[in-house]
Amino acid sequence: MTWSRNATAYLGAVLVSSFGSNAMMLAAGIWVMALTGDSSLAAWVGFLVWAPTLAGPVIGAIVDRVPRRRRVMIGTDVVMGLLLLLLLLVETEAQVWLIFAVMLCYGIAFVVSDAAENAVLPAAVPADQLGDLNGLRMSASEGVKLAAPLLGAGLFTWLGGAGVAVLDAVTFFVAAALCLLIRPGTIEHTPAAEPWRQRIAEGGRQLWRHPVLRRVVLSTSSLMFLVGMAGTTVFAVVDEGLNRAPAFAGVLMTVQGAGSVAAGLLAGPLQRRMRPHVFAGLGIALFAAGAALRCLPSLAPVLGAALLAGLAVPWVLITGATVLQRDIPAAFLGRVSGTVTLLSFAPGAIGQATGASLLAVADYRLLLGGAAVAGLVTAALCLRPVPEDTPAPGRLSPTR
C-alpha cells in the first residue's frame, strides 16, 4: 500500500507528540510528588488530564463551527507548546497550581485535537486507508509508551520537571510543523446560526442513527467499564496470584504494551476482512479470555492475559474511530467525536471506582471472573447481525 503525504505527515505528528506527552504525564505526577510529598495530589494529575472528556460533546460542537479544522490541530499544538514553557516558572510548592492548570489544558487539548483530527482525516486520506491509518496511529501511541515514561523519569532525575516540559514543548512544535504538510480537501462545518443546544444534541442523534457505529460505541462503553474494573486487580494478581514483588506489574504492562503495538499493525488488514461489529466483538471476546486467564496462579497464563488485553482494547477503539470517520458527515464529526469520547472513556473511570470498592470486600478472582462473564455477554451482543450503514450523505472524496 502506498501512503499519501498526508498520512505520512499525520503519523509523524502522532509519533512525536505521543512521545513527549507520555514522558510529560509521568513526570508531572513525579514533579508534584517531589514538591509536595503528597501522593494524593500527584494522583490528581491523571484525573485532570482525563476530566475534559466529560465535556466532549460541548468541545466537539465548538470545533464543528470552525471551517478549517487543520488549523485547529496546528493551533492546539502551538498553544500547548507555549503553555508547557510556563512550567519553567515552577520552583516551589507554591507554584504547583501551575502544573495542575497546564495538565487540565492538556486534557482539553486532547479532546479538541481528537475532534479536529476525526474531521480532517477523512478529507485528507483515501477511505480505504483509514483503517490502516487508525491502526498505525494506535501502534505509534502505544509503542512510545514502552520508552517515553522511562525517558521522562530519567530526564526528570537529571534536569528536573522543567527539562521534561521543554522536551514536550518541542515535540508539540514539531507536530504542528508536520501538520502544516497535511492538505485536506474541503470540510463541511456547522452553520453559525444553529442553536447551541441543538448543535450539541445533534451529536447524539447522529450517533444513534448509525446502527453499526451505535453498536460499536455501546460495546466500547461496556468494555471500558470492565477494563477499568479489571485493572484494579493488577497488584492483587502479582502479589496473591504470582507471589511476586509489586514492581513485577511493570513487566505485565510492558507485555500489554507490546500487544497494543501488534494490535495496531494487524488492525488494518483484519478490518478489511470483517464487518466492523464482528471485529469489535472479537476484541471484546479476547478481553474476556484474558480476564479469565488472570485468575490462574501461574506466570504463563497471566502473561498471556496481558498480551490479550493489549490486543483487545485497541481493536475495539480503532473500529469505532474508523466507522466514525467513514460514516458521519464532516459537519457533525466534531460533536459526534466528542460524544464517542465521553461514552468510551468515562465508563473506565467508573469501572476503576467500582473495582477499587469491590476489591476491598471480595477476592480479586471474583472480580476477574465477573469481568470475563460480562465480557463474553458484551461480545455476544456486539456480534449479533446488524444492517451495514450506508456511507453518510455529502461525504467528499478525500484528497490523495
Automatic annotation (TrEMBL):
Membrane topology value: Multi-pass membrane protein
Subcellular localization: Cell membrane
Keywords of the record: Cell membrane, Membrane, Transmembrane, Transmembrane helix
- Please list every transmembrane segment annotated in the UniProt record, as residue ranges: 7-35, 41-63, 165-182, 216-238, 244-266, 278-296, 302-324, 336-360, 366-386
Coiled-coil-forming residues are none
| Pfam families, per database record | MFS_1
Where it mainly occurs, coarsely classed, is membrane
**What InterPro entries does UniProt report for this protein, alphabetically?**
MFS (IPR011701), MFS_trans_sf (IPR036259)
Its name, as the record gives it, is MFS transporter
Q: Give the source species.
A: Actinoplanes flavus
